[in-house]
Amino acid sequence: xxxxxxxxxxxxxxxxxxxxxxxxxxxxxxxxxxxxxxxxxxxxxxxxxxxxxxxxxxxxxxxxxxxxxxxxxxxxxxxxxxxxxxxxxxxxxxxxxxxxxxxxxxx
Length: 107
Fold this sequence. Notes:
The structure is a single chain. The chain is an alpha+beta fold. The protein is 37% helix and 21% strand. A 3-stranded antiparallel sheet has the order 1-2-3. Strand 2 and strand 3 form a beta hairpin. The protein is globular, with a radius of gyration of 15 Å.
């Protein structure tokens, strides 16, 4: 999405550093909304992502604090595609709340 928007603008510099929300709007004409997750509880975040997944919404995530990024194994100032949130029960009967996230750069 970011690469297509940069092509639309002519360069990444004109895109303003690569804003996924802006690129999504420019290419689809559909509105996009921010949700600052640091103000949400883990349960609320999980429920919100699962609900948007159920509605078929397009979701993405990023990390804008390098210390917090390292804590959750994300790359600073990088966009990720979010495919949803699911509960998973392991062989020991422990239920985990998992997020399906894709890194387009492959790391």
